Amino acid sequence: MLINKRLVLLHFWLAFASFAVALALGAWQMYVRSPLHPWIKDPEIYYRSVSAHGSTMAYVFPTLVAMALGYAVIELSLKRAIVGVKLAWVGFGAVALGFMLAVIAIGRGTASVLYTFYPPMIGSSIYYIGVVLIVVGSWIWVALMGVNLAIWKRDNPGVPVPLPMFACVASAYLWGWTAVGAAIEITFQIIPVALGWKHNIDAGLARVFYSWTLHAIVYFWLMPAYIAYYTIVPRAIGGRLYSDLMARVSFVMFLVVSMPIGIHHLFADPQVGSGFKFMHSVFTALVAIPTLLTVFTICASVEIAGRLRGGKGVMGWLKALPWGNPMMLAITFSFVMLGFGGAGGLINMSYQLDSTIHNTQWVTGHFHLIFAGAVVIMYFVIAYDLWPQITGRAIADMRLIRVQLWLWFIGIMVLTIPWHLVGIMGMPRRMAYFDYTNGEISSQALPVIVSVIGGVICLFAGLLFIFILVRAHRSTVDLVEDYTFSLPIHRTESVPSALNGFRLWLALMIGLTLFNYGYPIASLIARPDTSVPGIPIGQGH
Amino acid sequence: MDAKPVFSLTNRWLVGSLCGTLAVAATAAAIGFVLLPSAQGGPQFRGIWNAICSAAGVSRHWAQNESIVYPADGAVSAVTITPQTLAHDAPDAVQRGEVLAARCAACHNASQAVAPLLVGQDAAFVYKQLSDFQSGARTNVIMTSVVKGLSERDMRDLAHYFASSGHLTGGVATEVVPPIVARGNPTKNVVSCAVCHGGIDHKAGAPFLQGLSASYLGAQLDAFAAGQRHNDSGEQMRNIARNLTETEIKDAAAYYSGFTDSEGRISQP
User: pLDDT of B229-266, one tens digit each?
Assistant: First the structure.
C-alpha cells in the first residue's frame, strides 16, 4: 500500500508534463529541418529548442520517473513508509527549481548549448546551476534509497532484500556515481568560465568528464524499464519470474560494467589514447551479458505465462499469451526496439565501425530507438500499472491504452529507421538546416519526410498517454487491490550475501572507473597547454 | 541466507567477479596497449614501452619532424572575449574614449577606401582588434604603429566610445540577402554570416558587418583564407573563409556593403 502518494504522484506529473512539452518540441524540430518546411531563418531558435528538448528528456524526465518508481518501490516492496520523507520533498524541490532555472536560461536564448553542453561553448551560468540542482535533488534520492535499504536490512537480518528494492537501489547507486563526472565538469570547469572568473577551458578534459556521465546515464534511463521487465511484467501477464538470482546478477553487472565505458563516445577525440578507447570498447561489449541474461530470463518468464494459460508445444505458448494485456504488448514492443537498437549499438561501440557513423544522424536515431522506444514505452506501462495505487482510481479503458502503445511503437519505428538510414548516407547530426535541393543530399529528402511522419505519430501517442492519465485521475475513486510484484518460480528463501547488498559491486564499479579513466584524466589535468578560450553562446548583445 | 562475509577469499562471488573482471581488463589491455599499437610499422612504436605509451596517449614528440604549426608571421591572439570582458569598466569610459578617438577620426571617419567605419561597432570586437594589433597577432602597416602607445585602459575606453557612437546596424539593405548570409552552406560546414555578425543573432566579439565596404570585407576574407590574418579565436573565421567560394565571398561583401547609413547613403566600395 502506498503511503506517500502525493510524493510519488508529483514526481510522475512533473516528469510527464515536462515530457509532453519536450515531445512537442522534438516533433517541431523534425518538421522544420525537413523538406516539408522552408528554412526557419534563425538557427538559434532551432538550437534553443534542441537544448530544451534534450535537457528535459535527458535530465528531468527519466530522473523524475526513476525517483518516483524508487519511492513507490520502497513502500510497496518493503511495506513500510519512506524514512526521510521531508528530505525527499527537498530533493523534489531541488529538481523542480533546477529545471525551472534551466528552462528560463534556455528560453532566453542564453543556453543554446544542447544537453551535452560541450565546451568551449559556454552558456549562461543559470543553466548550469539549474542542471547542478537537478543532480543534487536526485542525489538526495540516491541517499534515501541507500538509507531505506540499510534500515530495512537492520530490521530484517538474514532476510533477502525484495528484488524490486534491490534493483531500484542498484539504479540509484549507478546514477549516484555516474553523475559525478558531469558534476565535476560543470562545477570546476564550466561554471567558473560561465561566471567570468576564468576565460579558458580545457575542452578535451571536459569531454572526458562528460563521457564518464554520458554513457552510464543511458543505463540509468534504462533501469526503470529493466525493473519493470523483472518485477512487474511476469505478474501482470499472469506468469512467474524465471529466476530471481539471474535478475540480481543482471543488475549488479549493469552497476559494474556500465560505468567504465563512456570513452566510446570519444572515439574521434584526439586527446584520449587509442588503448583506452579500445578498453572502453571491450567493456561496452560486456554490457551485452546482462542484456542477454535479461532477454533470456524475461522470455522464459513469458513462456511460463503462456504455458500456465494452457499453451502447449514448441510455439503454442506464444498463441496462448494475453495479447490484449497492455503489459504484454509493451514488453513485446520494447524487446523488438531493444533488439534493433542493440544491434545498431554494436556499431557505435566498435572502435573501427563507429567511424562510419560517428556524429551522423545514425547516432540520434540510435538513442531515440533505445530510449524513446524500448525504455519510454516501459515508463508508460509503469505509470499505467502504478496509477491506481497512486490515485486510488482504476484505469478502465484498456483499449485506449493498447491504441496508445501501438501508436508509440509504430511512431518510434517510423521515426528512427529512416533516421538511421540517412545517418548511413552521411547526414551529420546537430544541424539546423539542410538544403535538400542540393544534388549531394537530395536523396535524403524522402527518408527525412518519413521520419517526420513518425515524429508526428509519436507526438499524438504521447498526448494520448497524458489524456489517459488525466482522465483516470479525474474519474471516481475506486476500490484498489493491494499491489504485488512478480513472484519467482522458486520462492527466494536465501540469496548469497554478495547479491543481497552492493559493497562488492560498488568497489568493482569505482575500481574499474579509476582504472579506465584515471590516466586519461590525470594526464590531461597535468598538461599545461590544453586550454582554449570559452565561446559564450547567446550573450553577445 | 548465506552468512559468509562478502570480502573474504572464501566467498566465491568475490573471487569469481574479481578474477573475471581482472581477466577481461588484462586481456583488453594486452590487446589495446601492446598488440594493436605494435602492428604500427613506424620505429617510434617499436618495443613494448613505446607501444604502451603511444596507446595511452602520452604526450611526446612521436614523429622526427613533428612541429606545431604556428602562423608564419607572428603571435597568436591571446585575447578572449566573454560577456564580462568589458562589463566592469569605468563609468567615464565613453567620454575618455571620445577624446582618444580624435586621433582615429582622420582615417576611420573619412573614406571607407582608407579604413573601415567604426561607428556603432561592437565594443568587444574593437577592444580585441586593438589588443591584437598591439601584440602583433594582427598586423597592418598603419595600425601596428598607431596602437603602440595605447594603454589597456585606452583600448577599453576607445571600444566603449565606438560602440556608443552611432548605429551601424540600423541601415536598410539594398541587395537581396544571398544564401551564404542567410543560411550558410551546410554541406561544406559553413554557418551563415548572419548568425554571428548580426541580422539573425550576434555572438560576443563578432564585428557588425553592415555598411562596411566590399573591398575591405573581401580583402579580410581572402586574408583569413590564406592564413595571413590569424587573430580569430580557434580559427573560426579561417575555417569558414577557406571553405567559401569566390562567388560567396563576393556576394557576402556586396550584400553587407549595400546597406544605407542613417542619411540614406550607400557605403563606398
Answer: 999 887 889 999 999 999 999 999 999 988 876 555 55
> Residue A219 catalytic?
yes
Instruction: Give me the pLDDT at residue A199, please.
Output: 87
User: Which stretches of chain A drop beneath a pLDDT of 50?
Assistant: 541
CB-CB under 8 Å, B24 with A283: yes
Cβ atoms B252, B192 nearer than 8 A: no
Virtual CA dihedral for A462, A466, A472, A475, nearest 10 degrees? -140
Three-state secondary-structure class, residue B185: strand
Binned at pLDDT 50, 70 and 90, residue B200 comes out as confident
> Which residues on chain A are in Cβ contact (under 8 Å) with B29?
275, 279
- How many other CB atoms are there within 10 angstroms of residue A385's CB atom? 19
* pLDDT tens string A354-409: 999 999 999 999 999 999 999 999 999 999 999 999 999 989 899 999 999 999 99
Closest C-alpha among A66, A62, A77 to residue A22? A62
Q: Do B1 and A494 contact (CB within 8 A), yes or no?
A: yes
**Using the 8-state DSSP alphabet, how is residue B42 labeled?**
S
Looking up cell 544605407 gives B260
What b/e sequence results for A141-159 when a residue is b if at least 16 CB atoms lie within 10 Å of its CB, and e otherwise? bbebbeebbeebbeeeeee
Does residue B13 belong to the interface with chain A, where contact is any CB pair within 8 Å?
Answer: yes
Mean per-residue pLDDT of chain B: 85
CA atoms of B171 and A144, how far apart (whole Å) = 60
Q: Strand A121-122 and strand A535-536: pairing?
A: parallel
Report how far residue A532's alpha carbon sits from residue A120's, in angstroms, rounded to the nearest whole number. 7
Please check whether residue A485 is in contact with residue A235, taking contact to mean a CB–CB distance below 8 angstroms: yes
Backbone angles phi, psi at B111, to 5 degrees: -85, 145
A7 and A450 in contact (C-beta within 8 Å)? no
Give the integer Cα–Cα distance in Å for B110 and B96: 22
Q: What is the pLDDT of residue A76?
A: 97
Closest CA to A55 of A91, A11, A19: A19
H/E element holding A51?
Answer: helix A43-55
* Closest partner CB to A497 (pick from B2, B18, B36): B2
Q: pLDDT value at position B269?
A: 46
- Compute how many other C-beta atoms are within 10 angstroms of the C-beta atom of residue A49: 21
pLDDT of residue A541: 47
Of A122, A520, A532, the CB nearest to B57: A520
Q: What confidence tens digit (pLDDT) does each residue in A304-356 have? A: 999 999 999 999 999 999 999 999 999 999 999 999 999 999 999 998 899 99
Measured CA to CA, the distance from residue B262 to residue B264 in angstroms comes to 6
> Of these residues, A19, A59, A219, A335, which one is catalytic?
A219
∠ Cα A223 A227 A230 (to 5°): 140
| Helix extents (H) in A320-397 | 326-349, 354-357, 361-367, 376-391
B204 with A536: Cβ contact below 8 A: yes
Distance from CA of B98 to the nearest CA of A (A): 22
Interface of A with B in 224-243 (CB under 8 A): none
Cα distances (angstroms) measured from residue A43 to each of A24, A49, A109, B240? 18, 10, 11, 17
Contacts 24+ apart (CB under 8 A), B19-22: B21/A256, B21/A508, B21/A512
What backbone phi and psi angles, to 5 degrees, belong to B85? -50, -45
pLDDT of residue A349: 93
d(CA A3, CA A76): 9
What is the ipTM, given to two decimal places?
Answer: 0.89
Distance CA A135, CA A184 (A): 12
Q: Is A541 considered catalytic here? A: no
Q: Where does the pLDDT of residue B47 fall: very low under 50, low under 70, confident under 90, or very high at 90 and above?
A: confident
Q: What letter represents residue B73's amino acid?
A: D
Is there a cis peptide before residue A120, judged by omega within 30 degrees of 0? yes
**Amino acid B268: pLDDT:** 46
